[in-house]
């Protein structure tokens, strides 16, 4: 105990030292994910510091999983290590509802909130209060190789069905030539394989929970969807599909090994970038596949910036995030990195710009896909939750992490689809019981 | 027919070749990482993997532009040396009294210390995080030094203990008869006699602290983040990243690797845990 | 040089003076003794007791990071949920398999390789440096290199070798996930075994060997009757130290397979991690942590029975 008091005394001295030097510049610590758009933001942060010499930015760039665990630990224990947090559409309403995040009211008038897509704003709000500003937003769509389709006399409809996808994949799968019919996420994780599998399940008419919060994994819809997924990816996918996430698939498609790929719309700008894609000219874009319904067949996600209540530099932090999500920032990216690299999916004005539409061949489809996605109505049968590829309840992350493991296990062949779904059902029931949704 | 001598030298030659083969195979992953760090991203992902390519430094330039390597490296140095020094200061006296004034409880204490290493770190993450928050130790080098000292202390005590056990007690007793104080006894007699072993202890503690990735990731943000945290910012971003990852890995491992090479003689001689008689 | 001359002494002389020091100045020594050990014991006790008591407390309440305020007492519910978790049995058996297999591989290969480099040949110094290098590499980096550069089923080096021989590349992490992890971890720990065993071999009595050889003992007999007994203690040390580290292996699994596919590479440490930081269920993870400590101590008990005796006491 003595030890502890001594330490806190030492720290108190240290803190005062920091505080007095902080009079000169407010230190803002930003926790963000190492995605391309955020790395660009970090690159441009000098410009912000030039505009605001009184603010000193500190970057903590981490991979997604590590970042998420880091931020959640910090915000839930009121740690106060971060002033700006990069969070998604799943966390924003939950954390906001718990009053862990500062509401984003009183934005400067030139910020033009009305320019941002309402579905994106809706996803970052809780009870009508906005808790985070969107940095970029994405839906999911189908990428395909126009050259291969042409060479094989195939044509991709605007929105294919999963059955059609399968027949295309069958014809384009040539493993000897390292050309695989279809690439899909297989790596376990609620933000990895479960994002895709949930949209697939939506298209097959399934839902995560019925109106009484009971899971339906043993129902016919989930059975169809998961069997189809395992069959499709197992037979016409690349080797190692069960460990492929977004990045791995992007690398595969970029090096010309995938004929088709269904994933996040943001991949468009990487796939068409000649400096990293060997197939830049041959990429085609379609909507994410439908099956019995098109409801919920494409997801909706946004990476957004928020200020935790535990921050000791809220004003400066808010100044930064309004800058990073503003139109002026888009302008800056355009000047520095080219117009195709502007953060997509958040502002109407981006898509009103003819230059952008020309430079970014995926833009129109992205706009359409984001427009189609409705987190409040994403399943064929009514469901009690909000979210397309997730259910915005705190338990979802835990449940979907485990279900994701089971489905990747089924994909890798270590268990049958039937077994995986039965286990998923009982895990979900277990977790929901544990969380007191019902007792049984 | 070969004579016995010829057969022996042929044998040695074959053994030598085999040893080289094994060594190269074991070293290959590190060599490949180094090689990949000089490739462009597209070359790094090429199939089949390329042994010959036009080398580029662009990955290193990029890593340096994006992150302040020296800041991370300095934190690693401070934290590993800091925890090693404090750890030795605690471990040497403890091992001394355990080795030379053994009681019934000594063995039990020693094993209990080792068993503290078996608690999975994540099991106590939240308690530690809360304590660190309350004491203001989050994201400080002091905090990491404390954690690393505690993590490595059992091993250090145990190692030092085994080396001290090898020293005949008469030597120390003779020094005491000559009127040495306790401090002189340790400093002038004990330490010089167990130099090799203690050097190995220091080295092991440095290596373990340098490479520790769980606490460093979870208890730091920007100020105190060591090289393991730098790796995490390159480990799976969007797009091709093999070459950048290799470059940053090389940068993170090079200091300790070179340090290890230089001091490998000490390690080979000293890392015996008292197992060699 | 110094070590070898020193090493000869204690084995014979250790037993007797122990008694002298007990009799002479008993009171004084025990005070010095306590004084010298106490800082370490105190620090370690604090390190154990504070987090441990917090962990025990957390393990009997409902504590989800996402509902931090909602902390009712739930008795043993967390323990019950932990042992009935789908990953629990898998976690247990994977932990044992992983530790066992890595120990076996590192010890067997370690003995063979250290014998190999014990002879004089050209460039032995460099060979040694190469052999022990993996020990200095961060576990995270180790896992990342293996996953992305070596074992990648499309662009990895192994895939290229397989293709070169006309075989279909193996998708390591989904076809042989646990084996892949074992391979990676073994690569990391093999140098440690080599280091210790190499040192031990240097002190092997050459004259005795030569004499045995002249008596007509073949290489096998030499190995089994002279070398192996000589290596018994260092092997025991390798087993002990590696077990301590391998029981809580985590970074390699986290970086490569994430415990999957299914639960095939989930060990107890990873299971607890996923409950604490993927599911944010601190109560459950605390219960798991306590169970893991108990299991580790059981393992430690047997280890000590097996080998510990010969380590703390000189025969």
From TrEMBL, chain A:
Signal peptide: 1-24
Domain of life, per lineage: Bacteria
Compartments (UniProt record): Periplasm
Gene Ontology cellular component annotations, sorted alphabetically: periplasmic space
Keywords, alphabetical: Signal
Signal recorded as keyword: yes
InterPro entries in the cross-refs: Bact_solute-bd_prot1 (IPR050490), SBP (IPR006059)
KW Endoplasmic reticulum (keyword) present: no
Pfam families in alphabetical order: SBP_bac_1
Predominant location category: periplasm
UniProt-listed PANTHER family: ARABINOSE-BINDING PROTEIN-RELATED, DIACETYLCHITOBIOSE BINDING PROTEIN DASA
Annotated protein name in UniProt: Mannitol ABC transporter, periplasmic mannitol-binding protein
Organism of this sequence: Marinobacter algicola DG893
Automatic annotation (TrEMBL), chain B:
Domain of life: Bacteria
ABC transmembrane type-1 domain span: 73-263
Membrane topology, from the record: Multi-pass membrane protein
Entries under PANTHER family matching the protein: INNER MEMBRANE ABC TRANSPORTER PERMEASE PROTEIN YCJP (PTHR32243:SF18), MALTOSE TRANSPORT SYSTEM PERMEASE-RELATED (PTHR32243)
This protein's name: Binding-protein-dependent transport systems inner membrane component
Family recorded in the similarity comment: Belongs to the binding-protein-dependent transport system permease family. MalFG subfamily.
Gene Ontology terms: biological process: transmembrane transport
Sorted UniProt keywords: Cell membrane, Membrane, Transmembrane, Transmembrane helix, Transport
Transmembrane segments: 12-35, 72-98, 110-132, 144-164, 185-210, 241-262
Database matches in PROSITE patterns: ABC_TM1
Subcellular location field: Cell membrane
Record-level GO cellular component terms: plasma membrane
Pfam families per record: BPD_transp_1 (PF00528)
Major localisation: membrane
TrEMBL record, chain C:
Main location as per UniProt: membrane
UniProt keyword annotations, A-Z: Cell membrane, Membrane, Transmembrane, Transmembrane helix, Transport
A biological process from GO: transmembrane transport
Record carries keyword Membrane: yes
GO terms under cellular component: plasma membrane
Positions of region (Disordered): 1-29
InterPro entries reported for this sequence: MetI-like, MetI-like_sf
Family: Belongs to the binding-protein-dependent transport system permease family.
Protein name as annotated: Binding-protein-dependent transport systems inner membrane component
